[in-house]
TrEMBL record:
It is found in: Membrane. Its main location: membrane. The lineage of its organism: Eukaryota, Viridiplantae, Streptophyta, Embryophyta, Tracheophyta. This is Uncharacterized protein. The keyword Membrane applies.
């Protein structure tokens, strides 16, 4: 009986030892791992740091300028020197330029269909060419100067009116700045200026607020892909789906409105949505999800 057990166990042990040796020989030369806990890795250390950049600076003084963490099951590298940052962001840019595949970002960007979240490749290069040549060229950005000046003048006039009223009224500058940003997005992005107290502008502001909240929300599946059910149980997945459907409906209404104007009027549109719709129609195979993803990237 003992010989039988040994005959079974010995091949398993030998296979394990050979596998570990081969694994070591093919493992890349990684920087030392910052000690953490099982399962959650270093997540508890980073989340408890009062000032994250200060904490990372302190760790770099101890462990060097390349830090390696485990955020649950996700390996993460932190660069803490200007020289290495230049190496990553410039010299080795193609190896690091793609964004991580986070749940909310991929969902809200139509599976990374826009230039902001798309992985580096032929599609990304084509989108960048269109953006640099047509949508965000120096000439095009300069053409929006009148819109920017008009909206800033409106905001300053409103602040002056509140200050000169009797009695003078306090001005929430954060709210005013948010209103300016939203209005600029609407006018430059899709050629509309909604009434400041109107339902459409409030609807768009609410969508932007929800968009910002979800893009920075903690999804368990970003760190534990096998535990995606936790996001469903917590209601976060349903909230993400609901926000996506509302954003999709809003963008579709904008596209339908522009398509309903006829080609002659669309050719005269100088805002981003009008130009992107023209590109899609000229291609012969319009991809409206790509247009919506572009709008999401500009709004986010």
């Amino acid at each position: 009986m003992m010989l039988f057990l040994i005959s079974i166990a010995l091949p398993i042990i030998l296979f394990y030892l050979i596998h570990k040796r081969n694994q070591k020989s093919t493992t890349p030369n990684l920087p030392p791992l910052i000690p953490g806990l099982p399962l959650i890795g270093n997540l508890h250390q980073l989340s408890r740091a009062p000032l994250l950049h200060t904490y990372l600076s302190q760790l770099s003084n101890i462990h060097g300028h390349i830090l390696r963490f485990n955020l649950c099951s996700t390996p993460t590298i932190v660069i803490s020197s200007a020289k290495l940052a230049k190496e990553v962001l410039r010299n080795q840019d193609l190896a690091f330029c793609s964004r991580p595949k986070l749940v909310a970002q991929r969902r809200l960007s139509y599976n990374a269909a826009d230039m902001v979240f798309a992985p580096y490749g032929a599609e990304w290069r084509e989108q960048r060419r269109i953006a640099n040549t047509h949508l965000l060229s120096p000439v095009k950005v300069q053409s929006f100067r009148g819109v920017r000046e008009d909206e800033v003048a409106r905001m300053v006039a409103e602040i002056a009116r509140c200050a000169s009223s009797l009695p003078s009224r306090a001005v929430d500058l954060s709210k005013a700045a948010m209103g300016l940003t939203t209005t600029l997005i609407c006018r430059i992005g899709f050629g509309k200026r909604y009434d400041e107290q109107g339902t459409e502008l409030m609807r768009f502001k609410d969508l932007l607020t929800e968009l910002g909240t979800l893009l920075t929300a903690y999804f368990v599946s970003d760190y534990f892909p096998a535990l995606s059910w936790v996001d469903r149980v917590s209601g976060l997945t349903k909230r993400l789906d609901c926000a996506f459907e509302k954003l999709d409906a809003f963008y579709q209404e904008l596209i339908d409105d522009h398509l309903g104007r006829g080609r002659a009027q669309m050719d005269d549109q100088d805002h981003i949505l009008g130009m992107q719709i023209k590109f899609e129609l000229d291609s012969g195979k319009p991809n409206w999800d790509r247009v919506k993803a572009l709008l999401m990237g500009r709004a986010g």
